[in-house]
Amino acid sequence: MKFHILVVDDEPVSRKSLTDILRLEGYSVASVPNGQAAVEYVRTHHVDLMIVDLRMPGMDGLEVVKVVNQIASDTEVIVLTAYGSTETAIQALRLRIHDYLLKPAPPAQILTSVKKGLERRSLRMRAKGLEVEAAEVDESLDSITLSDGTLVDLSRRQIKRGETWVSLTPAEGRLLRILLMNEGKVFSHRELVLLVQGYDTSQREAPEILRPLVSRLRHKLEAFPALSEQVVSVRGTGYVFETKTE
After folding, report:
1. Which CATH entry fits the domain spanning 141-241: 2.60.40.10, 1.10.10.10, 3.90.320.10, 1.20.1290.10?
2. Measured between alpha carbons, how far is residue 135 from residues 120, 128, 159, 200 in Å?
3. What is the pLDDT of residues 86-96, one digit of tens each?
4. pLDDT, tens digit (0-9, with 9 covering 90-100), for 221-235
């Protein structure tokens, strides 16, 4: 399925140029000449990403972003402006935009920003889907008893076996829950940061954020043979929970 992008710009030449660039890259693209038309379009169409000019007559770019955030919060937004200032940049970033670019932005810069914005959206939507799946399982899966008698109490964030028990921090508990409920599924570093910590980060930073958390969890799992060494690192990708084979 093609990603659908909406271009919002009151300048016909700029609007057409940007639309052509995106279509040549294989995206599905629509364009509108003002903010009000943009809002109406988003109300009636699915839009993955919107590129909006900051200064337009009538409803300006920031007003458009405010409304779009309310009616289509999953739509990524890139703001373009020929009149950049620190104040407008701060205002835009506070409105949950993906990027803020100065006109005339080179095509390569625009395409890079679009690609990253769509990647971020895809990651966030996948994380939302996983959260829904986890929530559905939560209702019937507050605890798990493993074959050797180890009890993993997900609601209390405790692991017990005989007289041995450990408590997990909220982040450790969320990480173990996600991995246990998706046994055999490889999660990228970025996906786990988003699911466990609740924010998006770069592909470069995500492993550094996860490493100490995974290390602490693994250390606690060492006391339980059925769980030790189950959180496996997938080189260059992320982590997976693997079942031990006899």
Report:
1. 1.10.10.10
2. 22, 10, 21, 20
3. 566 566 566 67
4. 999 988 888 899 998
Its pTM stands at 0.55
CATH number belonging to the domain at 4-124, selected among 3.40.50.2300, 3.90.960.10, 3.40.390.10, 3.40.1700.10: 3.40.50.2300
Q: What is the CA angle 123-15-47, rounded to 5?
A: 30
Alpha carbon distance 49, 115 (integer Å) = 10
Strands 164-167 and 231-234: unpaired
Sheet holding 143-145, edge to edge: 143-145, 151-153, 158-161, 164-167
